[in-house]
Amino acid sequence: MAKMATQTEGQTRSAFPHRHHNHQRCVDQALGKALSLCEERGARLTSLRRRVLELVWRSHEPVGAYDILEQLQRDGHRAAPPTVYRALEFLRDQGLVHRIESLNAFVGCPYPDESHVSQFLICTACSEVAEIDGTKIRAAASRNAAAAGFAIDRLTIELRGLCARCNAHDQGSSEPHDHAR
Ligand SMILES: [Zn+2]
Ligand SMILES: [Zn+2]
Ligand SMILES: [Zn+2]
Predict the structure, then answer these.
(1) Which residues lie near ion ligand 3 (Cβ < 5 Å)?
(2) Average pLDDT over the chain, rounded to whole?
(3) What are phi and psi of 166, to 5 degrees?
């Protein structure tokens, strides 16, 4: 969509949050954006959907549907798996969460109000996932696919490795890395 061109921070925004960042702020921001987006679109952010979104945002580690179900049941909800899947589907449709295909788990999207191509960086040491802009990779993949007469239905970009902090630890540095936000 046209919005893609207006991204100002480009390729290197966010990445991994600092270990000791105030995560409640991430959660509050995510819930605030969800509320206003759903209102704008006339989509119903029911209390269950909102709670599921909150659970996905529990941390920057992807969360599985089963974990969400367990937590809902601990909350006293008599939720069944289809309830959770439907809520997750709604949140995905609204761009509020993404599914990490290789982990079959979900993460919250920090940019639900922008049309974007997700590129996920998955740290295999601390399990955190960061989302960066994959627009250039998408363009290259589209060109290659078109050259082969192939129509892309879905493109998943998931990279596994070590985040800067875990990588620094790996190399013997005791200094935790200060991630730019
Ligand atoms: Zn956070
Ligand atoms: Zn996203
Ligand atoms: Zn890490």
Answers:
(1) 123, 125-126, 163, 166
(2) 88
(3) -65, -35
CATH of domain 4-9+17-172: 1.10.10.10
Comparison of pLDDT for 85 and 13, the residue scoring more: 85
Contact predicate 51/72, CB 8 Å: yes
User: What's the CA-to-centroid distance between 124 and ligand 2, angstroms?
Assistant: 20
CA-based diameter of the chain, in Å? Answer: 54
Question: Considering the entire predicted model, what is its pTM?
Answer: 0.83
User: What pLDDT is recorded for position 178?
Assistant: 53
By CB atoms closer than 10 A (0-12, 13-18, 19+), residue 144 is exposed
Q: Give me the pLDDT at residue 156, please.
A: 92
Instruction: Match 């939720």 to its residue by tokens.
Output: 79
Ion ligand 1: residue ranges with CB closer than 5 A? 17, 23, 26
Domain ranges for the chain, please list them. Answer: 4-9+17-172
In angstroms, rounded to a whole number, what is the distance separating the alpha carbons of residues 145 and 2? 22
